[in-house]
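MODEL INPUT / OUTPUT PAIR
PAIR INDEX: 1
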Amino acid sequence: MPRTLSALAAAVTVALGLAVRAFLGGWFAKYAGDALYTVLIYWLIVLIGPRLRPWLAALIATATSWAIEFAQLGEIPSWLRPLLGSTFNAPDLLWYAVGAALAWCLHTWYLRRRTARS
């Protein structure tokens, strides 16, 4: 996937996350935000490694999100809390996997579409 497209996907993901938080509330906004957090990590991973297979990028994004969540069982420095959170919440683990699966699907669709055009 071209780096410019990965960067654009990351920017769109940030915009979606901000929109969800601004216009929606409750559990949907919270868990959509969790999923989009992992989608953003996915696109950043693909930006760094554009030749990574989608399943591997999804696995790395999920593992990264889970590691951050489990780190919340300890003490997160106050200056990192806005980015990493501060309270462990087990259901977040599921929504991180949902976000990675969504990004994997989008990336796979793009690659198949590009291959079909060639």
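PAIR INDEX: 2
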Amino acid sequence: MGDVYLTHEGYEKLRKELEQLKTLKRREISKAIGEARAHGDLSENAEYTYAKEAQGLNEKKIAELEAKLSRAKLIDESAMPKDEILIGAKVKLKDMDSAEELEYSLVAEEEADYSVGKISVTSPVGEALLGHKENDTVKINIPAGTLKYKVIKISRE
């Protein structure tokens, strides 16, 4: 497994999630297992089975987060060119077909959240935008067709 490139914000988000899973979530699951055990026969106890499955999923998520954080390389956005679309950039685009304006932040795959405008640099759109500058026109092939955007503005968050 390779390096995981994260912004400082993304690193902190993963670190906090890991801390919550290791403390609060583990305690909740342990309590649920204890309560289910108190009900008697474990072989036919659905609550116990559910709690043990939840424990396994929680431990798997903890291991995944620990692995990501151990391979994390923090992105020094201050050392990156301000006029080029790279990871960590916030871009304002104009759809050349609809004239709609869009804003995206380009982030690592682990930080991507389309609902808040964070797209992965490994997504078709993110990958196609990398390296472009303001006023460039970018054609992006996606499964639904071709997108054509003009880069209006590039900034760092």
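PAIR 2 NOTE: The CA atoms of residues 24 and 63 lie 16 Å apart.
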